[in-house]
């Protein structure tokens, strides 16, 4: 019952705050992009704090030293939870998420995401969609932003293994940035399609960047490195 009540309070606050921001903050869509980005970072930090307090979840980040102090970065993260699509707004100064294009159709959220410079990918678009993603990523790099991509393309449950997609290899080639692997056990606490949020230590482990890995070995190496770390924290 305690878990249910904590989760209920969290969901009420989460959707109330996020929905209120989307409505009351909609005038920001008329201003410079930096206003939306700062506002989304502020909102993310608030929502993470609400989760920590209401659900008794401690977010523990290790390996921050592997992120550049400033400027562009290419981050490839395990994806277990909706939490992963939120937290990087709070962890890096100016995030660009690579996300499925369908999310741009969500009222208000989609407008904020598009206006803030998120990269939408048409997963059925083939080579044309890949070229568009690379062009937009190069623009983000020129702006000194931190790109976050989920190589699995969708959320996975604890212990589940899906095919990893080569988009990360294309991004690494286009941006000339080393890939920074990230493991997380967020699915333990904010599981896919689960109302209950469970207490505990939610780990985000940022690993050393992959340097001098041949293009044809990058995807395999990335998967091996992240999954090895996952076995320690899942």
From TrEMBL:
Coiled coil: none annotated. The chain crosses the membrane at residues 12-30. One of its GO terms (molecular function) is acyltransferase activity. Residues 73-187 form the Phospholipid/glycerol acyltransferase domain. Keywords: Acyltransferase, Membrane, Transferase, Transmembrane, Transmembrane helix. Pathway: Lipid metabolism. Pfam families: Acyltransferase. InterPro entries: Plipid/glycerol_acylTrfase. It comes from the Bacteria. PANTHER family: 1-ACYL-SN-GLYCEROL-3-PHOSPHATE ACYLTRANSFERASE. This is Lysophospholipid acyltransferase family protein. It comes from Sediminicoccus rosea. The lineage of its organism: Bacteria, Pseudomonadati, Pseudomonadota, Alphaproteobacteria, Acetobacterales.
